[in-house]
Amino acid sequence: MITIENKYECFVALWRKLERTRQLFGMQYRRFCIRRVMHS
Could you give the C-alpha distances from 33 to 6, 7, 8, 16, 40, in angstroms and in order? Predict the structure, then answer.
């Protein structure tokens, strides 16, 4: 679990995790929903 703070480093880490998730969903032909990822 990532603790999100209002820092540049935290947002970069979050973006990398989201981008990796988006790529994995793309390989599985699944839709990427940012709300669902953020909720989990």
Answer: 23, 24, 23, 15, 11
Q: What's the pTM value of the predicted model, to 2 decimals?
A: 0.57
Rounded CA separation 11/35 (Å): 16
Q: Look at the alpha carbons of 5, 7, 13, 18 in this order and tell me if their dihedral is positive or negative.
A: positive
- The pLDDT profile of the chain, 40 residues, written as one tens digit per residue, is 667 788 898 888 888 888 888 888 888 877 777 676 666 5
Q: Is 35 helix (H, G, I), strand (E, B) or coil?
A: helix
